[in-house]
Amino acid sequence: MKAAVLRYRVMAYVTGVVLIVLCFVGIPLQIAGKPAVANDVGVLHGILYIIYLVCAWILARKLKLATKPTVIMLLAGTIPIMTFIVERWVTRRFINPALAAQAEPAETVSR
Amino acid sequence: MLRQRYSHGMDDAGPAQGPAQGTAPAAGPVWRFLIRPRWVGWHLLMVVSFLGMLWLGDWQLHRALGGNGLSWAYTFEWPLFACFAVVFWAKTIRDEFRVKRGQAIVPDHGQEELPLGVGSVQAGTAAPKEDEDAELSAYNDYLARLNAEVKRHGRWHGLRS
C-alpha cells in the first residue's frame, strides 16, 4: 500500500510538472512559431501519462475507490495543475484514512 | 430507555455488511444493476470515449502518413488509451458483481490489509454486554450508527463497500 501511494505521488508530481511546462511554456512558444518545445514535451507527457495511469489505477484499486473518484484520479493527469489538487484531495480523503485504519484497528469504547 | 431503543441491533442504521448493501434490495438477477440509469450513463460515456479515442488515433495516423513525424507517437498512444479504458471498464463491472454477490474484493491482498476491527464494530455493539451500563452501550451504538452511515454515504462518493 505504501509503495503504491509513493509511486502514485511521484508520478502525479512529475506528470503535473511536465504538463505545466507543456501548457505554459510549450504552447506559447508554439504559438510564437517555435514548436520544438511543445513537440518534445508533448511526447514526454504522453509517455509519462501512461505510467501515471497505471500507478493511479493500481492505487485506486488498493484503496477500493468507487468509479467516480477513480475516473477523477485518472483524468487529472490531462488537466494542468489538477494532478496537484487531486493528489491532495485523494491523500486527505482516502489515503490518510486508509493508512490510519491500517495502523490501528478501530475499537469500541470500553471501561 | 436507551438500551431498549437500540437493543435490537442496528435496524435503523442501515445494513453495514452483506450483499444488499446498496440502495435497493436486489430484485431479480444480479446483472440487473447494469441497466440502471446511472450505469447506462457510464456505459454510454465509455462507448463514446472509446470510439473517440480510436478516432483520434486514426486522425493521428493520417497526419503521420501525411508527413508529420511527431504523430507516430500519438498514433500508438490513442489506441493504447482506448484499450486501457476497456480494461478499466471490465474490472469495474467485475468488482461490482463481486460486491453485489457479497464477496469481498481482493485485488491483491487488499482485504488483509484492512484492520480487524473495521468490519466487526457493529457485531460487537449489537448486543450490549451485561456489565456495560446503559449510557456506555448507547454511546457504542451511536458510534456504530455513525460508522454505518459513513459507510453508506461513501458508496458512490468514495470508498467501495
How would you characterize the overall build of this protein?
The complex is a heterodimer of chains A (111) and B (161). By secondary structure, chain A is mainly α. Chain A has one domain. Chain A is built from 4 helices and no strands. Chain A has helices at residues 2-31, 36-62, 67-75, 82-103. In chain A, α1 (2-31) runs antiparallel to α2. In chain A, 34% of the residues are buried. Chain B has 161 residues and is mainly α. Chain B folds into 2 domains: 1-17 and 119-161, no CATH class; 23-106. In chain B, 64% of the residues lie in helices and 0% in strands. Chain B is built from 6 helices and no strands. The two termini of chain B are 33 Å apart. Classes of the chains: A mainly alpha (111), B mainly alpha (161). The A-B interface holds A 1, 39, 42-43, 46, 50, 53, 57, 61-70, 74, 93-94, 101-102, 104-111 and B 42, 70, 73-74, 77, 80-81, 84, 88, 91-92, 105, 107-108, 110, 113-118, 121, 124-125, 132, 136, 139-140, 143-144, 147, 154-161.
Main β sheet profile of chain B? none
Radius of gyration of chain A: 17 Å
Mean pLDDT of chain B: 71
Portion of residues in beta strands of chain B equals under 5%
What's the order of the H and E elements of chain A?
HHHH
Report how far the terminal alpha carbons of chain B are from each other. 33 Å
The chain pair forming the largest interface, with residue counts per chain, is: A-B, 31 and 39 residues
The helix/strand order of chain B is HHHHHH
Average per-residue pLDDT of chain A, rounded, comes to 88
Helicity level of chain B: 55-70%
Low-pLDDT ranges of chain B = 1-24, 108-113, 119-126
Supply Rg of chain B. 24 Å
Q: State the helix count of chain A.
A: 4
Number of strands of chain A: 0
Ranges of chain A where pLDDT stays below 50 over 5 or more residues in a row are none
- Outline of chain B, from the CA principal axes? elongated
Q: How many separate helices of chain B?
A: 6
What distance separates the N and C termini of chain A?
Answer: 34 Å
What structural category characterises the helix and strand content of chain A? Answer: mainly alpha
